[in-house]
């Protein structure tokens, strides 16, 4: 390897290890090697041991590697991260020891233009009942010539897809409205830039940049709560955008009426448009998200029972679910182990503990009794009629699946029954689920209701 490339790579590796931490660096970037370099195009190949690792490093560290190489050795203008087996064989290395410093490439785009994540598009946003209204409204605002609502206010808890939709709106709007001016920033950045503009006597420039936007995207508006001067400017910016017929999209972690510390006139203006909530993903949506994510994780085989286990247990947020999948895939690749439920429980031990909702046997008995329209007292009665025994077996099965209680504990809560009765009930429901769609549908519905 030519000396400048070798020296640059060593410096970059040291910086990445310092910035990312030893564990992250050793797990992902330590195996990386410098591949072929094209002096004419300025493209450098970084080789990873597997396609999965190449995809993961490209997704999570691609921009950082590009910036690091440009800053360290400007001759390298583009970094391409590929699996070693797929990389072209390097041509004989050029002697680079005396290559003069290359000038920085001229900027061809507006430095203030938003940098949207290409992964966050409408095509990659998985739609379900929890987010259907928000997704439809976002598509409509981004792609149609006229919209019946303005602004669009998206709200939901952390990790439910608000930022994904915001980036998707921006990219779709740019595609369907060539030449349109899009401005995207967090409410916190809005506040910081506004304060800076005041200090630098450039409030006119700040106002002009935002109010001339054809589409203005503001993320996490709750962060301007209690900031009176910022709210004053924000209100006038909103008014200017809406009055001029331009489009405004705002996100928050809660609906307008729950935003404490925000001026009433701003809340009123936000409520004029369409307020769309993004609810927690239900079981079916989580299943679909896992399936879509697995399609992008090349070479990772995950059995259906594991997929269903993850969809059932990881309920906090979509972001956490995706992070868990990346972690499982990474550990499987690095340890060469088969992915099964036991492996997942080991890798995600802390995450699963944090997600364990304390569902009680009493809750299960109540829910099952309501579903089958029997008295809750029948759960502990001695009656063996089928219309009572089957719901009781379903409740025992769910108690085994959804609570940490032992078999004897479960039996005691069902009228002092023996643990062998619980085992029989669990096996019976498992067998029926495989051949009776009605029983399977009932168990799935009850599981969603109890976990929701």
From the structure above, extract its key features.
Helicase, Ruva Protein, domain 3; GMP Synthetase, Chain A, domain 3; Rossmann fold; alpha/beta; 452 residues; three-stranded mixed sheet
> Numbering strands along the chain, what is their spatial order in the largest sheet?
5-6-7-4-8
- The share of residues in helices is 40-55%
Given this structure, which CATH class of the largest domain is correct?
Alpha Beta
CATH-scheme architecture of the largest domain: 3-Layer(aba) Sandwich
Task: Return residue spans where pLDDT drops below 50 for at least 5 consecutive residues.
Answer: 87-109
Summarize the structure.
By secondary structure, the protein is an alpha/beta fold.
Question: What features would you describe in this structure?
Answer:
The model is unreliable at 87-109 (pLDDT under 50). This protein starts with a helix and ends with a helix. The longest helix is centred in the first third of the chain and has 22 residues, at 51-72. The strands form 2 sheets. It has a 5-stranded parallel β-sheet with strand order 5-6-7-4-8, sandwiched between helices. Strands 1-2-3 form a 3-stranded mixed β-sheet. The protein contains 19 helices and 8 strands. By secondary structure, it is an alpha/beta fold. Strand 2, helix 3 (51-72) and strand 3 (78-83) form a beta-alpha-beta unit. It has 4 domains: 3-86, 2-Layer Sandwich (GMP Synthetase, Chain A, domain 3); 122-277, Rossmann fold (3-Layer(aba) Sandwich), CATH 3.40.50; 283-355, Helicase, Ruva Protein, domain 3; 361-451, Chromosomal Replication Initiator Protein Dnaa, Chain: A, CATH 1.10.1750.10.
